[in-house]
Amino acid sequence: MNYIEINFTNSPELNDVILAFLSDTDFEMFEEKENGLSAYIPEDKFDEIDLNALIIQIPGSENIRFDVSLIKGRNWNKEWESNFEPVLIAKKVFIRAPFHEINNSYPYEIIIEPKMSFGTGHHSTTALMIELMLEVDLKNKSVLDMGCGSGVLAILAHKLGSGNILAVDFDEWAYENTIENCQRNNTSSIEVLKGNASVIAGRAFDVILANINRNILLADTEAYSKCLNENGILMQSGFLIEDESVLIKNAQSAGLKHVKSVHQDKWSAMLFSK
């Protein structure tokens, strides 16, 4: 099958927003780059007029440029496998694909099938969230992984002793990939739902993990706070260091206290308490 490759040129903070808009369309694969994002769609499903109409709806669309190219038939699974390398985080969490060799040298091993869901551990925001999780006692805590992607954070929470874990993502690929990865890691007790913040209304959690993007965090932090038990913890990432102040103010208005921030490259993750 032939694919159309769209190379977006934009500021890094727009990557997640573009991805959110494209996830409900026929685009099948995404790749983050230093100066933007690449997206892939089957040739027979691509319409440039529809793409332009979609881009106009994105906040900051005036700063988005893209070019279109045709990629002839390619073995995409082989491409993923050739480009996906194991990753070690904080010298404790080893994330690998099923086709990599087992490594028992570290306390926690997670097997992630590298499909179209973000959250393989390679991106700074996922690594930062994992580092924060390792600093907190999650044993017997109820946990929500909001915007779960591949399910890697929910799976780690299970391995760290959490109970009653819920993983949520609005993207169909992420939802299915999380279920598959939970089965792959013998963590099928994790509940997985497809949807947005509306599906958690009326539920309560000791810890909420939200590695999404700036705009969704700003819109949904109040909903997270309502679902957070007293003395509960909210961890957020998916945004640039320069966005910290507005996110802290937003969390404080939702009744949360900023405890700490951690950084990697230009990205940030923050921990809040209630």
Topology:
Elements: E1 3-9, H1 15-22, E2 29-33, E3 36-42, H2 48-56, E4 65-71, H3 76-83, E5 87-89, E6 93-96, E7 108-111, H4 124-134, E8 142-146, H5 152-159, E9 163-169, H6 172-184, E10 191-194, E11 205-211, H7 214-226, E12 228-240, H8 244-253, E13 257-264, E14 267-273
Parallel strand pairs: 6-7, 8-9, 8-11, 9-10, 11-12
Antiparallel strand pairs: 1-3, 1-4, 2-3, 5-6, 12-14, 13-14
Structural account:
- This protein is of the alpha/beta class.
- The chain folds into two domains: 3-74, Alpha-Beta Plaits, CATH 3.30.70; 131-273, Vaccinia Virus protein VP39 (Rossmann fold, 3-Layer(aba) Sandwich), CATH 3.40.50.
- The chain is built from eight helices and 14 strands.
- The protein has helices spanning 15-22, 48-56, 76-83, 124-134, 152-159, 172-184, 214-226, 244-253, and strands at 3-9, 29-33, 36-42, 65-71, 87-89, 93-96, 108-111, 142-146, 163-169, 191-194, 205-211, 228-240, 257-264, 267-273.
- Helix 7 (214-226) packs parallel to helix 8 (244-253).
- It is globular, with a radius of gyration of 18 Å.
- The model has no long low-confidence stretch (mean pLDDT 88).
Summarize the structure.
This protein is of the alpha/beta class and 274 residues long. It has helices at residues 15-22, 48-56, 76-83, 124-134, 152-159, 172-184, 214-226, 244-253, and strands at residues 3-9, 29-33, 36-42, 65-71, 87-89, 93-96, 108-111, 142-146, 163-169, 191-194, 205-211, 228-240, 257-264, 267-273.
